[in-house]
Amino acid sequence: MSKHKKNFQWAVVGAGPAGIAAVGKLLDRGIPANQLLWIDPHFKVGDLGQLWRNVSSNTIVRRFLDFLNDAASFSYQQADKDFELNHLNPEDTCILSAIVEPLQWVCDHLMKEVICEQASIHKMALTERTWFLSTEAQTFKANNVILATGAVPSSLNYPGIDLVPFEVAIDKERLSHYVDCDKTYGVFGSSHSAIIILRYLVDLGVKKIINFYRSPCRYAIEMGDWILFDNTGLKGQTANWARENIDGTLPANLVRYNTSEPNIARYLPECDKVIYAVGFERRKNIVIGDYENAGYNPHVGIIGPGLFGLGIAYPELKADPYGSVESQVGLWKFMAYLNNIMGTWFKYPT
Question: For 255-303, how does the pLDDT look when each residue is reduced to its tens digit (9 = 90+)?
């Protein structure tokens, strides 16, 4: 019998940071490596590794190191490579490539342990208390499944606009080759990524930038043992730039308008190119029988019997001490959440 015909105890779909965390923690909890199926089309640290490595992080280095050291099965301390991340100031943010490199090492290490399949799952169904996961070529069986399938940038649906892909706009090197300084650029958003993009366009000296925003800039503030607006607020150099250039003196080539229908009707036609930097939405690439609109419980990650969600597509919803509720997005937050809820997942099988 081939190894793929058997019924696995657990399957993890996705090999970005959340998928890596899930595989590591399942091994730490004693799931036999040959009972753990890991599926991803690339095994290149997900979108983080393939699209966002040149982006400035919204997380300090210390939290990345916490993630890498939290799972014994990662064997990070035994790595035969001295990563740049180990030498950065732990209290500073960094370029994401600094965390992608060690994550790729951990991914490669775990791939030697568990059963891996380089493929995309297109559909899933629960039959006779077993999950059937189908690629184009074959079907796998697992008692429990963790979806760590990631998210894609939200899209704008105004007709006739020339959209710059978000993954180009957020990468200064790629944007510098793409940009036409004689054009007017519209940027939607006032989040961390939107402010980064505004800064790039200002620095690149484009003729005019029109920023459409819904709400004022929000800043993450250290409150001792917690951070106000930790998930939604601006941090580090991006926050400093916004204070000086958004809430201070606007650069000569930047104007800002609230995202009202009259403002969009009036000013959007001025824009030769448009960048939409308003959040992410769950990647909808798997058809799950009878679960099309099921959602998930944002406090414990349960989608259905034996089916669980983790990562940016299925973040924890949590209130801060003042009662503000935010989706918890970030490597360490995924790991801390997993530490809290995985015991419950073991009690919620098919």
Answer: 999 999 999 999 999 999 999 999 899 998 899 987 867 789 999 999 9
Kindly state the helix (H) or strand (E) to which residue 49 belongs, with its residue range.
helix 46-50
CA dihedral 185, 189, 191, 195 (to 10 degrees): 20
Q: How far apart are CA 229 and CA 221, in angstroms?
A: 7
Between CA 217 and CA 153 the distance in angstroms is 20
Structure-block tokens of residue 232: 């939604």
- Partners of 145 in the β-ladder: 11, 307
Q: Tens digit of pLDDT for each residue in 213-261?
A: 999 999 999 999 999 999 999 988 899 999 999 999 999 999 999 999 9
C-alpha 146/C-alpha 309 separation (Å) is 6
From the DSSP assignment, how many helices (H) and strands (E) are in the chain? Answer: 10, 19
Asked if 190 and 211 touch (Cβ cutoff 8 Å), the reply is yes
Q: If you count them, how many residues does the chain have?
A: 350
Cβ neighbours, 10 Å, residue 45: 26
| Cα angle: 130, vertex 301, 294; to 5 degrees | 65
Whole-number Cα distances in Å, 43 to 32, 106, 209: 21, 11, 37
| Amino acid in the structure at residue 289 | G
Distance CA 99, CA 165 (A): 24
What single-letter DSSP state applies at residue 164? Answer: P
Q: What is the pLDDT of residue 56?
A: 85
CA distance 15 to 21: 9
What letter does residue 158 receive in the DSSP assignment?
-
